[in-house]
Write a structure and sequence with these properties.
Number of strands: 0
Structural class: mainly alpha
Largest sheet: none
Distance between the termini: 89 Å
Shape: rod-shaped
Number of helices: 2
Oligomer: single chain
Order of helices and strands: HH
Helix content: 25-40%
Length: about 90
């Protein structure tokens, strides 16, 4: 590029910006994808973003209603056993 030639960047500077927030708390300054509100890195590109649904929580099942109820029952049984042991041994 020639040193005495200036670049016309007005259109690029005037383009709409991504509205996503960054980890630093500031707004993303990348240009938004045409016709969208986000840049290509924050969900404007086709096929970008996380899949629908929380598939991570479904992998192990530790937080299903059945498992939570099971842990609650076990905790109650252990509390009762501790109270019974405390009654048998007054020391």
């Amino acid at each position: 590029m020639s040193a005495d030639r200036t670049r016309n960047t007005r259109a690029m500077a005037a383009s709409p910006r991504c509205g996503a927030g960054t980890r630093g708390g500031l707004a993303c300054r990348a240009p938004a994808v045409r016709g969208k509100l986000r840049c290509r890195m924050h969900g404007g590109a086709a096929g970008s973003g996380a899949p629908w649904g929380n598939r991570n929580a479904q992998k192990h099942g530790a937080f299903t209603q059945e498992r939570i109820a099971e842990r609650r029952t076990i905790r109650e049984l252990l509390d009762e056993a501790g109270k019974l042991l405390g009654e048998l041994d007054p020391d």
